[in-house]
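note to self — DONT lose this again. spent like an hour looking for the file last time. sequence + predicted structure for the chain T wanted, 234 res
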Amino acid sequence: MAERPIFIPNISGRAAVTTRMVSFEWHPGMSLSQKQKSIASLHQAAREQCQGIEKILEISSKSLEDLGVRSSAFNLKWLSSVANFPISVECAFQGSKVFLNGGPFTDLYEARPIDAKRDVRLRSSGNLKAFDFDGGNWPIEPQTAFYDWLYISALRENPEIADAILSFDGFTDIEFNPKKSINCQAYSAALFCSLYKQGMVDEVLEKRETFLNYCRSLDVSNARQDDTIQGSLF
């Protein structure tokens, strides 16, 4: 057995996303078929353990649905102000990191997402201290704010994908382990859905400080941090 989170959009209360940890049968192995068996098992268990959650989207390159693959941070791109070519969420995130001894490494904007994520400079430049994107400095607190802003900004520029994910009750990422990672594309997708259903997407994306202040106003429930009382929804 294993545990993974499911992220559920929430439009009531102070938490925009509710996270539930789901126990499910893990299918070991690195092949795509094994990963997809684990995804299917996770989704079935989530339906059984989380009342009212039926339609679930895996957001990753391992997804069984084309929409989940297209909406992964590796594949979701937009024409941002930092380049004259479409840039993926993953490359924007990795290339904007500022460490104690280096960064931002903006050449990663043009790299393959997998290469950007594995670039040795990201592990040899000291502690992460900020993000620098298009001349704007983003703090590392709130922890997921910059990544969420990138992902939601890219979704807004891809209305076909954005419209499609709005029909889902919850989101997963089989590769995300909250014991090892902080940011998660499935959490960002749930946050987008919550913002959209409240008519707030354009408002909070208008300025960096507006988005940061919005994130600071929330109770956070993202598998690593939980400011809410668990069990209030189900």
